[in-house]
UniProtKB/TrEMBL annotation:
Pfam families (UniProt xref): Na_H_Exchanger, NEXCaM_BD
Ranges for region Disordered: 585-689
Cell membrane among keywords: yes
Domain Cation/H+ exchanger transmembrane: 8-382
Record protein name field: Sodium/hydrogen exchanger
Keywords recorded for this protein, A-Z: Antiport, Calmodulin-binding, Cell membrane, Coiled coil, Glycoprotein, Ion transport, Lipoprotein, Membrane, Palmitate, Phosphoprotein, Sodium, Sodium transport, Transmembrane, Transmembrane helix, Transport, Ubl conjugation
InterPro entries cross-referenced by the UniProt entry: Cation/H_exchanger_CPA1, Cation/H_exchanger_TM, NaH_exchanger, NHE-1-like, NHE_CaM-bd
PANTHER family: SODIUM/HYDROGEN EXCHANGER, SODIUM_HYDROGEN EXCHANGER 1
Length: 689
């Protein structure tokens, strides 16, 4: 029913199914099965955590690790003590039915109910496709708060059996947090390395390769739980450590098997957990107390909101990408409780905690409220607040290159600043991994393969599989290199080509040949230090050569302009008159042009022969003096004829801002064209003679 599943999360529907099944079993007179804690912690929870740890998006997780740890550790401690203290106050004021509940019992109840549940968060957040930052913050918190929950649970459980709790017990309890969390991490790392090392020798038994991944992961979880360490942190660390090395060693079929088997296994466990929650609700013994249950629910919400607001205010002082009020609301609203709280409550002993049934009733109420109310309303709220959603984009080689480039760049900037930050230690770890760890844990030539090439092979294989699944087998190029073929039949790499070593003299000779034949070659400077910067000996010679070429080019251009007729279209008489009339200052007379021949133009009819009078056409050589270079450059000058009267033609009438001399026009054509023949009887006498 798509209309229902689009509104109600899958976890809510599964709890409803469990309620119906439990009611049906009880209706026929049978006793419904209850979700026992051993079954939950040993068989149902590990597949979900392993799936989350093995496929954990490592880059966003490590970049936001500080924020996640603050929410997981400080936030969970705040929730537990705030809720436990307030519930103790409620019990003291709540009447005879609650007076006997001690402070330790309330603190234990607060530690159980305060932790965000990874199963419930996964079930809801994967359906609403929230952006990667918010998803990793809430989900990372739900994974890492396990250590705090385990420590507080066992601590208060032990204190309940003591007659008196001393300061030493509290200090030891505080130190046990580091033992539980770091011990779980260490166990996970050890088993992850063993699994990676084992996968190096499985090339001849591909069938059981996936078994080693599941076996060592489960052994890490059991070993951690055996010593009361954090099993969830051990599983996550085992999955994160083993994955890059295991995937480089195993075949592609084994990788596919691991991926789909983990997804199927975790999905089945999640389904059973929520169904059993519904069945156990019907089957369990309940003790309903309105004051206790309503107070628990109210204080849970208040503690979560206050914790997120205060911690985010502190975290934003150190974060580059700040958490906005919308992000804070989603983080606070996404604090869902689930089956871990129910199972821990079910583990309580009646001997020390006679109010176990009331605790379980309150826990189930909080679980149902968070899963049903918050889980169902978070999707409309995300749409209403326009919170950024996850972008389904495929990673590309281009993106990988730029990501690696930015990592190297930021590492270099940190080294220059002397600030050993996140990128510095990440680079150190990558170098150590490449130099030592890969050689021990990865078999064959894959240990020497660059990260970019490995990523390219992975993308190529993924694309080939998608083509096969979509039926486009004919589109696959013939030269597709596959990871599985490399793993099954490892081929020896061809020997590296030996490049001839050049002596310094030979190298300098090649540089000289290149300089004479290529215009823009420069000697590359080896050092970028300003104290050791060496000047290029050829730089000055090249500058002189470029200046000489530029001067020669300018001179050649000037000669061409002087000797040849420019190839531009002549304007019509009307356009000429309009241009001259619009800008008379453009034709300013030159100083030394008094002795030049002058042609007077009547603008009224420029084409009539009568309008052109030769006023002075004295040859330059007649005066007995050689022509000056200025006269050679200026050529002939055309003068505008003054109008006979002010009203005749006022286009060329000099204005007040003009020069005192007459307006003249520089002649732009070297050849004025054929002169009109003088008619018979017309005197050919220059003016003024």
């Amino acid at each position: 029913i798509p209309s229902v599943s689009s509104i109600v999360p899958e976890s809510c529907l599964l709890i409803v199914v469990g309620l119906l099944v439990g009611g049906l079993i009880k209706g026929v007179g049978e006793k419904p099965p209850i979700l026992k804690s051993d079954i939950f912690f040993l068989f149902l929870l590990p597949p979900i955590i392993l799936d989350a740890g093995y496929f954990l998006p490592l880059r966003p997780f490590t970049e936001n690790l500080g924020t996640i740890l603050i929410f997981a550790v400080v936030g969970t401690l705040w929730n537990a003590f705030f809720l436990g203290g307030l519930m103790y106050a409620v019990c003291q004021l709540g009447g005879p039915g609650l007076n006997h509940i001690s402070l330790l019992a309330n603190l234990l109840f607060g530690s159980i109910i305060s932790a965000v549940d990874p199963v419930a968060v996964l079930a809801v957040f994967e359906e609403i496709h929230i952006n990667e930052l918010l998803h990793i913050l809430v989900f990372g918190e739900s994974l890492l708060n396990d250590a705090v929950t385990v420590v507080l649970y066992h601590l208060f459980e032990e204190f309940a059996s003591f007659e008196q709790v001393t300061i030493l017990d509290i200090i030891l309890g505080f130190l046990s947090f580091f033992v539980v969390s770091l011990g779980g991490v260490l166990v996970g790392v050890i088993y992850g390395v063993i699994a990676a090392f084992t996968s190096r020798f499985t090339s001849h038994i591909r069938v059981i390769e996936p078994l080693f991944v599941f076996l060592y992961s489960y052994m890490a979880y059991l070993s951690a739980e055996l010593f009361h360490l954090s099993g969830i942190m051990a599983l996550i660390c085992a999955g994160v450590v083993m994955r890059p090395y295991v995937e480089a060693n195993i075949s592609h079929k084994s990788h596919t098997t691991i991926k789909y088997f983990l997804k199927m296994w975790s999905s089945v466990s999640e389904t059973l957990i929520f169904i059993f929650l519904g069945v156990s609700t019907v089957a369990g013994h309940h003790y309903w107390n309105w004051t206790f249950v309503i107070s628990t629910l109210f204080f849970c919400l208040i503690a979560r909101v206050l914790g997120v607001l205060v911690l985010t205010w502190f975290i934003n002082k150190f974060r580059i990408v700040k958490l906005t009020p919308k992000d804070q609301f989603i983080i606070a609203y996404g604090g869902l409780r689930g089956a871990i709280a129910f199972s821990l409550g079910y583990l309580l002993d009646y001997k020390h905690f006679g109010m176990r049934d009331m605790f379980l009733t309150a826990i189930i109420t909080v679980i149902f409220f968070t899963v049903f109310v918050q889980g169902m309303t978070i999707r409309p709220l995300v749409d209403l607040l326009a919170v950024k959603k996850k972008q389904e984009t495929k990673r590309s080689i281009n993106e990988e290159i730029h990501t690696q480039f930015l990592d190297h760049l930021l590492t270099g900037i940190e080294d220059i600043c002397g600030h050993y930050g996140h990128h510095h230690w990440k680079d150190k770890l990558n170098r150590f991994n490449k130099k030592y760890v890969k050689k021990c844990l990865i078999a064959g030539e894959r240990s020497k393969e660059p990260q970019l090439i490995a990523f390219y092979h992975k993308m190529e294989m993924k694309q080939a599989i998608e083509l096969v699944e979509s039926g486009g087998i004919g589109k696959i190029p013939s030269a597709v290199s596959t990871v599985s073929i490399q793993n099954i039949n490892p081929q020896t790499l061809p020997l590296d080509r030996v490049l001839p070593a050049l002596s310094k003299d030979k190298e300098e000779e090649i540089r000289k040949i290149l300089r004479t034949n290529l215009q823009k070659t420069r000697q590359r400077l080896r050092s970028y230090n300003r104290h050791t910067l060496v000047a290029d000996p050829y730089e000055e010679a090249w500058n002189q050569m470029l200046l000489r070429r530029q001067k020669a080019r300018q001179l050649e251009q000037k000669m061409n302009n002087y000797l040849t007729v420019p190839a531009h279209r002549l304007d019509s008489p009307t356009m000429s008159r309009a241009r001259i009339g619009s800008d008379p200052l453009a034709y300013e007379p030159k100083e030394d042009s008094e002795n030049l021949p002058i042609i007077t133009i009547d603008p009224a009819s420029p084409q009539s022969p009568e309008s052109v009078d030769l006023m002075s056409e004295e040859p330059k050589g007649c005066s007995g003096l050689p022509p000056s270079p200025e006269e050679d450059e200026e050529g002939l000058v055309m003068r505008v004829k003054e109008p006979s009267s002010p009203g005749t033609d006022d286009v060329f009438t000099p204005g007040t801002g003009d020069s005192p001399s007459n307006q003249r026009m520089l002649r732009c054509l070297s050849d004025p064209g054929p002169r009109p023949e003088p008619e018979e009887g017309e005197p050919f006498i220059p003016k003024g003679q």
